[in-house]
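hiii, so i know i said id send this last week but things got crazy w the move. better late than never?? heres the sequnce for the chain we talked about at the cafe, plus the structure i predicted for it. fair warning i was half asleep when i ran it
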Amino acid sequence: MFNPELETKKIIQFIQDYFEKCHLGGIVIGISGGKDSAVAAALFTKALGPERVIGVTMPCHSIPEDRNDAIKVADFYHFKLINVDLTNTFDTFHKEVEQLEDFVESEDSNINIKPRLRMSTLYYIAQMVSKKEQKTYIVSGNGNKCEEYVGYFTKGGDSVSDIKLLADFTVEEVIQLGEVLEVPKEVLYKAPSDGISQKTDEDKLGVSYKDIAKVIHGEEVEKEVLDNITKMHNGCAHKFNIPTYRRDENK
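okay and structure toks below
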């Protein structure tokens, strides 16, 4: 049976052990205003202290309320929050690619470039702070187990990170961890969304996170739901592993 109090203690110890082993200075984490980044930030703050946690908001044609929620999280846990507005960066990039001879407008391309810009920003800041502090700062990945299972992440974007705390926890389990950590309720219980497409995650996926968790745990769901989730999981196989050709030196 899932014990959120015990798991919270174990994750905090995991962070402390890893940072001590690798002689790391701190963590840089994108704060989206949603539950996953809030819970991850809370865990890092508890483990390392707020002075070693740097949050970053990166609006890009985003919902203003998300940044307001990110500020609430940073204020509650007392870590530094940096804002890097990527709107003009995105617009400049889009303007350039529009000039390509074979350019075709793509909603998915427009959505996915945003987390890729954000991840580049996080690594830039991590290296910048590492130089300043003379200690290595690494980047957090905040995805949960349900997202990971159906490939609901962007290759080269939020799939890239140096450490993951929530990848083995379903959405409901993340919420339970957040309750233990006293994450502000308006953030913890808000409908999950990417803050980009103006849709909730479940609207985009066409299935609920609760049903994804059931499939992960081998529980029964309606056949149509199972088929949809299985199709997403299998269809995203290219996201889970990078095929690499290896020479056979014996032939």
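btw The chain has one domain: 4-191. thought thatd interest u
miss u guys!!
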